[in-house]
TrEMBL record, chain A:
Keywords: Monooxygenase, Oxidoreductase
Designated name of the protein: Methane monooxygenase
GO molecular function: monooxygenase activity
UniProtKB/TrEMBL annotation, chain B:
Provenance organism: Bradyrhizobium rifense
Pfam family, one: Phenol_Hydrox
Protein name as catalogued: Toluene hydroxylase
CDD domains per the UniProt record, alphabetical: AAMH_B
GO molecular-function terms, A-Z: oxidoreductase activity, acting on paired donors, with incorporation or reduction of molecular oxygen, NAD(P)H as one donor, and incorporation of one atom of oxygen
Keywords in alphabetical order: Monooxygenase, Oxidoreductase
Amino acid sequence: MTASLTLNKITAQKGIGITEAANRVADLGWTPSYVQEAMTFPTDYKISKVARDPMKQVLRSYFPMQEEKDNRVYGALDAALRGDMFRNVEPRWVEWMKLFLAIIPFPEISAARSMAMVGRLAPGEELRTGFTMQMVDEFRHSTIQMNLKKWYMENYIDPAGFDITEAAFGKCYATTIGRQFAEGFITGDAITSANVYLTVVAETAFTNTLFVAMPSEAARNGDYALPTVFLSVQSDESRHIGNGHSMLMSMINNPDNHLLLERDLKYAFWQNHAIVDAAIGTFIEYGTTNRDKNKESYAELWHRWIYEDYYRTYMLPLEKYGIKIHHDDVAEAWDRIVKKNYVHKVAQFFSVGWPVNFWRIEAQTEKDFEWFEHKYPGWYAEFGDYWKWYGKKSKPGETNILFDQENGYVYPHRCWSCMVPCLIREDIVCDEVDGKIYTYCSKQCAWTHKVAFAAEYEGRPTPAMGRFSGRREWEDCYHGWDLADAIKDLGFVRPDGKTLVPQPHLRFDDKEMWTLDHVRGHTLQSPLRLLRELSPADREKSLAEYRKGFKIRSFN
Amino acid sequence: MSAQVQTAQLKSGAAGAAVFAGSESRKYNYYEPKGRKATHYEDMTVDVQPDPERYLLQDWIISFGDGRPAYSKDSTAAKSSNWHKFRAIDQEWERTHYQRQSTICGMIQNVIDNGRKSGAASRFDKTWVKVLQDHLGAYKHAEFGLGTATMQAQRYGYTQMINNAVLTNSSYKLRFAQDLTLYLAELGIDIGATLDTAAGKKHWLEDPVWQGARKSVESIMGATDYLEQYFAINLVFEPLVGELFRSGFIMQLAAAQGDFITPAVVSAAEADYERNLANAVELFHILAHEPEHAAHNQGVFNGWLAEHGALALEAAKNLQPIWSQPRVKVSSFADALAAAKNRIKTITTEVGIRAPASLTA
């Protein structure tokens, strides 16, 4: 046998090329003449140009490729168990996965659903093949993440919180931001939601922090499962980014669309920043025990992935099509992260609310303080004492920190738009929409509710645009409730009927764990309801006080 | 005096490293499994799409411009007192779906590759090649249309279980449409210019034989009720037209024309349909026997059956001339249609509704 002879040379025969295969598959579609397809998902955009499928992949090669990726994922999970991964994993990290993995499967499957919304919009059939694969990809992501969560539940020391996961997702005061994120993919104008918000911004920009940066931190905490699953998920994202860009290119040359594109890019970027940076920033910075000063902080990761990679190489080039890019919002998001301590304030808020969460949050310690101060100079002066108070108040018998009067924390207003509270106190906006008072974390979020999600935009009717609805302020749902009763109603009680699912520490010992009796006797209130009850003058006074912020009392 | 032995504090994040309240709670506990124990499929699927009547405390928080919420029971005319009851019979989640789809892709590719290597296409009956070109080529568009209709429908269902069953249905249909497209293109390489790969679409759009099928498919694509689409595809079009053509024509006649490849390619769709049908029958059986809305739902289903059944039956009858085209005739259209009518009779009986006599007699 000659050295140059290979099996491939023996078996190969002439086939059809990738481009030809993609063209033939694209030719499966036709324009109906007996009955028109119903446009049940409306858009105010005009789409006239045929969208191109940049990936040119067909299902014949897609399914075997995905099966191979799955085999690697599931093989790695088996190997992790054989290697006793959980013996060395950091519980501080896995606890935050109870929140993250409660949220993420719904946004993923929402992305699958949203492919129906864009599937009928693009003229021609070429991109529909891309949307088909994205639909199945997102089905993959949603169920592979449910599987990972079940795997943690079965093998991690404290399964409580994983065991109630989808019920908790629907009820928790923290997962509410994930619901805002996911519903943004599937409701309202089909292009706004399924193209700009989902693919052009969330997938193209923010999956890099979600699915690339966060797995790196997981590995530093002894968790090899999350990187295995999520880097496999991320490998599908390039296809989705291609779909989003191609759809965008089919609209961008029509000047009639520019106003709406500018609106949607502004809304989508700001809300992705507000939601994703809040959650992922907290997981990466506060869920880790690794305090290597040489590793990138979330701010540095953000600069690399969002500023350099997305803003400079994706958003800025859109200007050549005549689209105005909201440079000031990008700069403001950066300032919120590096100057206004956005992520740190979110982590503080999550920890204050631990009794109504469904995972454990332990106090940050001296080792953490040193790293934070190194990466974010001035951090210790603002947050050091708080975490010392938090550690002290983690013992059952102390007043839970949510109602503790000693430490000085003031419970925040909720942003009506992004659902993250108004944590940068000086930036709170109070405005009136349709005769009702609302609070917002920023002027951008106020604009989103008042201007973007409306029936008209800059004089142009926008009937397809979505509307904010539901009981958007979580606190309003339990206004006047005793904390213990609210926790029972939430279902955040362990099977013994008294011990709380959430705990403000990582001590896996019944003697150290909080029960309903420890938290009874405190009444939850809605800050917005209280604000609305004030006279206009008192409301202004209250807001002026709020903008001054609060000072954590000295711990010593 | 005795020596004190100091043991290092146990530090392990593994299950069983400590015993405390909730440390043994290792099952998803927020839903009722269909059987005695939850299946893996149920754990992957149930309640991922939330419901204000179960755990969605704050209700849907973004609505469409006209006030419709993200998901609404009003997206179908059918009613249920418990939309969460349905579980897909095929129990598909991502891993099982990719395994099955990938196996099918491998099977089809092997059959085609080995057939081509043996020069099989050159031994196909020449008349049969034209039948494949014109009619299998036309039929691939029907599969594509049904795939896009289910892609649309998977957005609307009130639960994750319904939507995922519709989604996998879409995935199977779209794969099969592509299977046929690429198979015919590869046949074209071996057969040469005598096989016109553009002819199929022309027949789909213009040939009177296919206009009933196109009208039937377009009616499904144009329906705005997602369950009407799912019903019309699996309970009406598939038995009366899809299976009629695939099983009743291609798979029965191909071997006699010297063609062992096409039946293998088409067989994958027959197996796909058995799974999609099982899911659909389960769902519509539940709805037809609903404790509160059985009569209403049976009325709705009978309406869909009458409307789409009439279109599908006309489509089936229009296909009759195709049976005369192969040179070697081993089965008749009458037999195939009788089998199709028997099939729809069986299906509707399983669901618990009555097919009109026009569809079964």
